[in-house]
């Protein structure tokens, strides 16, 4: 195993896998920390998917360290901590505390931090994260149900989550290429900085950052900064020149979309889908009960399940999210809906659904957990950062697309199934 990665949510993990597969690495995503006696898959990269983004800090740290230990035992040569391209976290963490624990466990003293993903319009300039042309805190992410992002200055955000010093490798240096970035990171480490936020606006920057960090034990960031890593291994003669991601085995069965993401992109995708597909909206304000919500949705779906996808969504605009949270509490509202969507996904599979899109990272964690999925084989991308995957575990095999809330074109819920038809 060349690269061992720990992802703080499941959509983030498939996003990273997809990037590595595109770079020619045979990559497997495993769900949760494998048991000590579980043999590592035969792959160049293994991504351990955790649901640790919004877990209590101690739990997130412990699970991440357990994942690291398993990856170390499996012989990984380099490590990657994958978090969101919009740096989703709270004042307490979990990016800072998990990164602190990994830096300490690896004894590396320093790690770069770069969430940039220009293909999906996330860029970092002077340490500030932009989504498209606006700062992170004006992008809609300020309304995220669980991790509202109200500050775009990543040096400041990360500093609040760690007792380590945070520096910056700014655009002017990054634009000079790998050697300049490497020197800047070495200087920051010598000055006692534990982290460097690294600016990146283009894929060329990401490739240069990857090259500059070839000797780093740990890299932290979004999937974008992993773009340069396959070439590092290739230059070192550890990865063969050409490999193509295997096509996934075909899988017949009915189609469905379940959505628990309230991100702008998902809301727009649902808006589009309403004109083309049957859509059922969960009303958690009227029925704050996961079993009852699930029963209602499955009753609605009963005579519609077929190879034309049904769509079941909890997603709501910020005012409705705030209303539910004010009644139930932020975490309880999230958990209620995740539970409802997970029950619905399981009910749909019982009724013959085998190809399913799940919208939302936390939502995907809940669904995949409920379905008993243990590993995902990565297939071709539907849109940047969202591949189809072949899911195996305790239930029937499935084709799953775990869609990050803010990823995908407006017609994503139709396109995903069109892509399967070739
Ligand atoms: N109508 C709603 N009111 C309150 N919370 C909601 C609602 N719909 C979904 N949620 C919660 O919002 C969170 C969305 O997070 P997530 O699934 O990670 O989406 P994203 O990928 O967009 O970040 C989940 O915990 C989900 O249960
Ligand atoms: O980096 C990203 O944006 C994604 O890979 C990711 O982490 C998605 O998280 P959600 O938006 O919670 O789905």
Automatic annotation (TrEMBL):
Keywords: ATP-binding, Carbohydrate metabolism, Kinase, Nucleotide-binding, Transferase. Residues 256-413 form the Four-carbon acid sugar kinase nucleotide binding domain. Gene3D superfamilies: Four-carbon acid sugar kinase, nucleotide binding domain (3.40.980.20), Putative sugar-binding, N-terminal domain (3.40.50.10840). It is an enzyme of class 2 (transferase). Its EC number is 2.7.1.217. Residues 3-229 form the Four-carbon acid sugar kinase N-terminal domain. It catalyses: 3-dehydro-D-erythronate + ATP = 3-dehydro-4-O-phospho-D-erythronate + ADP + H(+); 3-dehydro-L-erythronate + ATP = 3-dehydro-4-O-phospho-L-erythronate + ADP + H(+). One of its GO terms (molecular function) is kinase activity. It comes from the Bacteria. Belongs to the four-carbon acid sugar kinase family. Catalyzes the ATP-dependent phosphorylation of 3-oxo-tetronate to 3-oxo-tetronate 4-phosphate. This is 3-oxo-tetronate kinase. It comes from Rhodopila globiformis.
